[in-house]
């Protein structure tokens, strides 16, 4: 009798779960989108290996010229050379995010959030958009050359600083705030400053940049970068976006407590993009519309993240597990 009762209970639970699944249209969408996103990312990897991604090819060319003309830059240039391959921190981050969707969907607050992440990864894996995103590390190499190599898909540094009334944060400024290359750390005074991962920190030593890049100064006075002005939604995980929002909120509150006003790093797009693909501009427009819609949803605002509040996500202490390895 007890066994029959247990069987009946199990059948009821299974039936209820079936009904829940039938009522959630995102389950079918996830099942359809997952192999498409996986295929797109694999195709991007093949395109990188075959030398078919324009800015990845230019990174190789710039790196070769820099190593030949400025051999003292070799260690950091060789690190940037990885951006032209599937060893790129950006490519590995996309792989990590897809693996999380496939293997740890419980880390997301809803099936809708899982589907949104799959779409973001799919868009980010488009070879043309990915090439545009590589303009940031490519232009860091251009800046390292001292003007010998031209910037690509962006105004000159002088023009961009003037157009945005921005502060010069030194060589590598395009990558400040990009979680693939470093992270914001907080000192004992509660001030957040940028810390590069591993070899990237050599840029400050080589180019004699002694000042710390504090978040509140950078946020109010940053210059243009592809990541921050076009690619942040696609090339960040939900947990990374959540951390950026939390840091911005904390900084704004700190300023407010002092009777001061803080200008968000994302209050408006910066000028500086040049000859970007139509796909990037279209994707940015879609991202802006999505952001406005998301802010209008009270449930989304309460969660402040696509990840479940109760999830112990493996990346919560940093950007990705890969980032820890690169930081050694």
Features:
328 residues; two-stranded antiparallel sheet; globular
In short:
With 328 residues, this protein is mainly alpha-helical.
Overview of this structure, please?
The protein is mostly helical and 328 residues long. It has one domain (33-326). It contains 16 helices and 2 strands. Helix 2 runs antiparallel to helix 5 and helix 3 runs antiparallel to helix 4. The longest helix has 24 residues, at 26-49. The model is unreliable at 290-306 and 308-328 (pLDDT under 50).
Low-confidence blocks of residues: 290-306, 308-328
Mean pLDDT: 85
Major β-sheet strand ordering: 1-2
Radius of gyration: 22 Å
Helix content range: 55-70%
Supply the helix-strand structural class: mainly alpha
Major sheet attributes: 2 strands, antiparallel
Helix run count: 16
User: How many domains, in number, for the residues?
Assistant: 1
Number of beta-strand segments:
2
Q: N- to C-terminal separation?
A: 61 Å
The ordered H/E elements are: HHHHHHHHHEEHHHHHHH
Proportion in β-strands: under 5%
Shape: globular
Write the layout of secondary structure elements.
Blueprint (H helix, E strand, L loop, with lengths): L1 H22 L2 H24 L4 H16 L4 H8 L7 H15 L7 H14 L2 H7 L1 H10 L12 H8 L17 E5 L5 E5 L5 H5 L8 H7 L4 H6 L6 H20 L20 H19 L1 H6 L17 H6 L2
Antiparallel strand pairs: 1-2
Helix pairs in contact: 2-5, 2-6, 3-4, 3-8, 5-6
């Amino acid at each position: 009798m007890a066994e029959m009762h247990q069987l009946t209970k199990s059948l009821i639970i299974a039936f209820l779960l079936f009904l829940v699944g039938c009522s959630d249209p995102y389950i079918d969408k996830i099942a359809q989108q997952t192999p498409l996103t996986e295929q797109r990312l694999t195709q991007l990897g093949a395109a990188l290996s075959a030398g078919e991604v324009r800015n990845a090819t230019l990174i190789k060319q710039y790196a070769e010229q820099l190593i030949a003309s400025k051999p003292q830059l070799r260690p950091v240039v060789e690190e940037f050379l990885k951006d032209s391959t599937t060893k790129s921190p950006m490519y590995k981050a996309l792989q990590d995010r897809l693996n999380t969707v496939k293997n740890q969907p419980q880390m997301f607050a809803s099936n809708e959030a899982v589907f949104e992440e799959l779409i973001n990864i799919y868009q980010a894996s488009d070879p043309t958009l990915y090439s545009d995103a590589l303009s940031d590390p490519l232009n860091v190499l251009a800046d390292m050359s001292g003007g010998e190599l031209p910037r690509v898909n962006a105004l000159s540094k002088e023009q961009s600083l003037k157009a945005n009334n921005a502060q010069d944060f030194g060589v590598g400024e395009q990558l400040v705030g990009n979680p693939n290359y470093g992270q914001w750390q907080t000192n004992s005074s509660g001030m957040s400053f940028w810390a590069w991962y591993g070899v990237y920190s050599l840029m400050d030593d080589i180019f004699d940049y002694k000042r710390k890049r504090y978040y509140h100064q950078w946020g109010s006075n940053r210059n243009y970068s592809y990541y921050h002005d076009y690619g942040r939604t696609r090339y960040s995980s939900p947990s990374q976006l959540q951390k950026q929002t939390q840091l911005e909120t904390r900084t704004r509150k700190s300023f407010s407590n002092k009777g001061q006003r803080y200008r968000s790093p994302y209050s408006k797009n910066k000028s500086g993009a040049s000859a970007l693909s139509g796909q990037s501009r279209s994707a940015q427009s879609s991202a802006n519309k999505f952001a406005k819609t998301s802010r209008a949803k009270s449930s989304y605002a309460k969660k402040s993240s696509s990840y479940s509040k109760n999830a112990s996500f493996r990346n919560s202490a940093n950007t990705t597990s890969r980032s820890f390895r690169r930081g050694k």
